[in-house]
Every structure is written in structure tokens, then in C-alpha cells.
């Protein structure tokens, strides 16, 4: 399959204050969201930063892990190294073309630096908004602000707080003027 045009979709879980993690991991446990992320990303290349790769610690099955790092000697089993966003997109395209079960979608998978670098190329954001406003500490990572002037926003589904699991809702943001990658 030739991926002529690709759609880039950011998939993120962020708190009400846009915190996404403390720099080395997530700061909530939301089992429903892990399932949703799997469904949204299966069959797609995931473009992620090296710190996010480190926090996951392995390649996720059924997806390509395209890892951005400025370290040209970096390598890890199951990861495709990219030195910049263009290279990450080229590797993603190659993987989609070479993979039967692939979908024509590239996932911007985080963390904070990678969302900031790639959001301008995304037409959609699939967000889980977690009903917390945590202080993520000195290394906190954030999702960039989504301006209503640029994005249409749809509320999809909500989940109530349950014990240690915070309340959450799924929101889809669609860019008003689509970009092509
Ligand atoms: N809640 C969510 O949905 C979600 C999703 C993903 C991650 N996270 C969280 O986000 C945090 C990590 O985010 P972060 O911002 O600290 O790190 P990150 O974005 O995951 O990775 C940053 C690293 O990516 C590389 N990099 C960044 N920009 C680059 C570019 N333009 N070209 C080449 N390489 C580039 C650099 O690697 P080198 O230093 O190796 O050069 C940089 O140190 C963790 O807490 C993680 O759990 C949360």
C-alpha cells in the first residue's frame, strides 16, 4: 500500500492544566485510557521523544516506535531512530508502505517536546482530559494550548471518578483549516 497522503493525529492524556507527566512517567493510572490509546494507535507508527521511549521501555506491539533523539549513536531494540521530524515522517511513511495491516495515520505520541514540535502538522487531537490539576514537579511536561480559533472541539464520553481513578473525558479536536503532511 502506498501512503500518498497521511494524517497525523496527536493522542494524549492531559490534566485540566495540560500537565501530561512529570518528565519520567505518567502521574495517574487510568486503565480505560490505556485501552483507548491501544485502539486509537494500533496499526500506526508512533512518533515519540526519547524520554517517552525511556518511560515506556519497550516497543508497543502492532505499531512502529519512531523515536526522536539528537544522539546519532542512539539505538534500542524495536525502535526506529529519527534525528528530526522530517526523518520521523519519512520512516513512518516507509513503515506504512511496508506493512499490510497499517493504517494511513501517523500518531504524534508525545511527550511535551514532541507535541510542541509536531502539533502544527496534526489535523486531529484525540485527548483524554483527566480531572486533575497536578503540579508535575520541576520536570513537568505539558501539552500545548489548543486555541478555539484554530480547533473545533467535540466532547465524546465521560467517566466518573472511582476510587484512585480520577474522572476523565474524551475530547476530539479537529483543525478548522487542515494541513497536509
Ligand atoms: N500523558 C500522555 O499522553 C503522555 C504521552 C507521552 C509522554 N508523556 C510524558 O511526557 C514526559 C516526557 O516528555 P518530555 O517533554 O520530557 O520528553 P519527550 O518529548 O518524550 O522527549 C524529549 C527528547 O526527544 C528528543 N527530541 C526532542 N525534540 C527533538 C527534535 N526536534 N529532533 C530530535 N530529537 C528531539 C530529545 O532526545 P535526546 O535528549 O535523546 O536528544 C529530547 O530530550 C514523561 O513524563 C512522559 O510520561 C505523557
Give the key terms:
single chain, 181 residues, alpha/beta, Dihydrofolate Reductase, subunit A, eight-stranded mixed beta sheet, two-stranded antiparallel ribbon, globular, binds NADP nicotinamide-adenine-dinucleotide phosphate
Report on the structure:
With 181 residues, this protein is α/β, with parallel strands linked by helices. The protein has a domain at 19-142: Dihydrofolate Reductase, subunit A. 22% of the residues lie in helices and 32% in strands. The strands form two sheets. The protein has an eight-stranded mixed beta sheet, sandwiched between helices. Strands 2-8 form a two-stranded antiparallel ribbon. Strand 9 (151-159) and strand 10 (168-175) form a beta hairpin. The longest helix is centred in the middle third of the chain and has 14 residues, at 85-98. The protein binds NADP nicotinamide-adenine-dinucleotide phosphate. Residues 12-13, 20-26, 48-52, 55, 68-71, 83-85, 109-114, 117, 141 line the site of NADP nicotinamide-adenine-dinucleotide phosphate (NAP).
Gross morphology: globular
Termini gap: 17 Å
Strand order of the largest sheet: 5-4-3-6-1-7-10-9
Listed once per kind, the bound small molecules are: NADP nicotinamide-adenine-dinucleotide phosphate
Report on the biggest sheet.
8 strands, mixed
Beta-strand share of residues: 25-35%
Radius of gyration: 16 Å
The level 1 CATH classification of the domain at 19-142 is Alpha Beta
The CATH architecture of the domain at 19-142 comes to 3-Layer(aba) Sandwich
Please mark out the parts with pLDDT under 50 across 5 or more consecutive residues, or reply none: none
Helicity level, as a percent range? 10-25%
Derived from helix and strand composition plus strand pairing, the structural class reads alpha/beta
CATH third-tier fold name of the domain at 19-142: Dihydrofolate Reductase, subunit A
Question: What is the N-to-C order of secondary-structure elements (H for helix, E for strand)?
Answer: EEHEHEEHEHEEEE
Number of strands: 10
CATH superfamily label of the domain at 19-142: Dihydrofolate Reductase, subunit A
How many H/I helices?
A: 4
